[in-house]
């Protein structure tokens, strides 16, 4: 347009935890392009297919998918009607206040997302734990990273990934386990490829039941049976002990609990583990040798460890190997959990889970609770942990929780045991859904729909997998009446405060008029903590670029690597060996449900597809969900490529096409996790998965189910 100048705004990709920097190109209030930010240390200008098409997910024709105005329905028999923001938030505050007055603060809940910005997370957390007085705030990070959090805390004393992406260039042996990094974290995988090109001696070991693109690139691929990681790692430790590959000096100086673990792993001979894992014992011995004898061994892992009902111990069993060999706290070494979502880390930093408190404080610690209460200017914060994701929806279904506020996530697609979740949302007295996209499965249950701004429209910060905080910036205004998540919470909090007789307190607690004010308060809450960021500011993040925590006042740079001094944030200062035993998955194959079902990501789709599903180009890689099966299993059922099959578990079934896959061994099947009921004409894939969860992390077993498959 004549006279209109194209502008560029630096921001961050809103998909995975690599946290790539992007440059948004926009003109006349419209996003018209996106390119990689050459100055951003996570990607140096590169983008994967998802990031490179972000602008298409914000194109004018996607407006049809957006929630544009607040909508309310007065009864479940009616459709929602457009209302003003005042009516919407007054109604929400009335409902919450009435339920709290009659049933207490634990009768309401908030369910958020690792896609929220740190500032959004902070105000939601403060609202629930500070003003309302309940810990019933959980997020979809529970489905994604909570076993990594619990594993780090159990083994190392704090939820702090010790490595950086830069370590990939320094490693000599890289173990990628439970992660198809080439698809799920593509730009991190480009770094692996670069490192191997520069140093062909780097050994890549991939541990995954499927021969994924990542596994294809490996020097050694261990295609273990799903959920048998602990047996494998224990056997590797057994071999290391037998061969004298343990780093005694490191174990003696910096760890505790090794003797108890030694006793346990004595039982895990390579032969025994080979049977449990379905592996060749020689490969187990080879993996142990590579791990222990390389000058620098690093592991990168994701949902294949986390999403099991023993996910925490999966993490700890792997960390045991790093501690036993001293492969931690030095360049190119350490256990590096890859964050699935763009800001699961930021959410953890502000305490955005039902068992966490601000700045890595411990809910069970009275001093920590008092510190948070003092920071927020309230008498106390509740001691009793709130409901985790699965517990929260179960409590909605039984009526223990009456009202839920769901923000920036789609549990009616993404939670396991979908029948339970849909029943819970139907049973709930009042459901608020705060969303940028109005077409999600969860929006169908909203009594009140609050339109939210999204990528390209909002301001704040996120933290990626390597503890680097990056600015997220608005390039254009939000469409319609959509508002920023943090601002909606602030407006609601003041209205709720008045109704609860805490009007003055709410005004004092939520004085913010810009996200920077929220972030500055969060920053102050980290003073003296392991993630201290008091040396940072929005201005610095904008002028100097992303920075890794800790970055305390007076520091000149953040920490690339943690625990280089061998001192860990445990009471003794020593890292802890955790005794881990092999456990069986929540469901084992049986005569009725004879196949293992694995779930995972595709290269070009993201989560429940509310954004990537809008971009036609992203369907060219995989146009529809297909069940991947081994040819023997297909032959036995007289199935041909493209046949429709019914996949059935104990909880439900889905109908979709089948395709033969050489990536699987016989007895295994695979389904991509992205498709929900709206795009599959009824039930989404998560109807099949169990809601059994890990006792420490409460993360459900979304990776595995036992299923039967028959021609439809
Ligand atoms: Fe976005 Fe992740 Fe792709 Fe980077 S690797 S462009 S953060 S989806």
Automatic annotation (TrEMBL):
Gene Ontology cellular component list: membrane; oxidoreductase complex
Residue span, 4Fe-4S Mo/W bis-MGD-type domain: 6-62
EC number of the protein: 1.9.6.1
Protein's name in the database: nitrate reductase (cytochrome)
Family: Belongs to the prokaryotic molybdopterin-containing oxidoreductase family. NasA/NapA/NarB subfamily.
Cofactors (names): Mo-bis(molybdopterin guanine dinucleotide); [4Fe-4S] cluster
Superkingdom field: Bacteria
Native source organism of the sequence: Zoogloea oleivorans
Reaction(s) this enzyme catalyzes, per UniProt: 2 Fe(II)-[cytochrome] + nitrate + 2 H(+) = 2 Fe(III)-[cytochrome] + nitrite + H2O
Its job: Catalytic subunit of the periplasmic nitrate reductase complex NapAB. Receives electrons from NapB and catalyzes the reduction of nitrate to nitrite.
GO molecular function: 4 iron, 4 sulfur cluster binding; metal ion binding; molybdopterin cofactor binding; nitrate reductase (cytochrome) activity
Record carries keyword Oxidoreductase: yes
Keywords: 4Fe-4S, Electron transport, Iron, Iron-sulfur, Metal-binding, Molybdenum, Nitrate assimilation, Oxidoreductase, Periplasm, Signal, Transport
Alphabetical GO biological process terms: cellular respiration; nitrate assimilation
